[in-house]
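User: My instructor asked us to take a sequence, write out its structure as tokens, and then describe one feature of it. I'm not sure where to start. Here is the sequence I was given:
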Amino acid sequence: MIDIFNKYGTILMTAMGQTLLLALYGLFFACIIGLIVGIMSVLKNKFCRGFALVFVNLIRGVPMIVLAYFIFFGIPFLCNSIMKIGGVTLTALQAGTICLALNCGAYMAEIIRAGIQSVDIGQMEAARSLGLPYWRAMQRVILPQAIRTMIPSIINQFIITLKDTSILSVIGFPELVNTAKNVVAATFLSFQTWGIVAVMYLIVILLLQWAAKVLERRLKYESR
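Assistant: Let's start with the prediction itself. The structure tokens for your sequence are:
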């Protein structure tokens, strides 16, 4: 195992960096999607609530590997062959980011919805009684309080998203699992290679879990 890491460690560490980069891209856009859909789900407008409900159930109901194939192969086919736009292609990074953003965004929407609903309704009523418009009250009063309860869940969702990047090896993105497959093909040492990959994932995920617990304790301490 040490010999493999000495020889292929740089490649595997680079792939780990690509994995983290993809997870960060996905989480960034997922936060935007989740914020929009999450707020829509708590509005009084039936269309907004219905759209949010359909989006969340649709994305969460489709296996991520199917979503990855659909985005990577289906969207270019739809644009080039059916819509006759022509020349539309997606790189593995672009398709992977869209896939993660949609998948993670559906779960983020539920986290944000729950965070907003955890704030006492009297806070919104008090802000509105002081003359603040709804969106300004949401921005200045509700969301700052909701974010405190959402941060640990967001970090946990990032951990899930990080692990989900392994699924995107099916579309050829050079993340850790895809790179490990190439190392196994070159060395025929599957046990040692996958052992190294497991340890790399474990170290990163344990660090993130530790950060989530520290942050959660700090938020609880500050809220006293």
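For the description part of your assignment, you could build on this observation: The chain has one domain: 2-223. Try explaining in your own words what that tells you about the chain.
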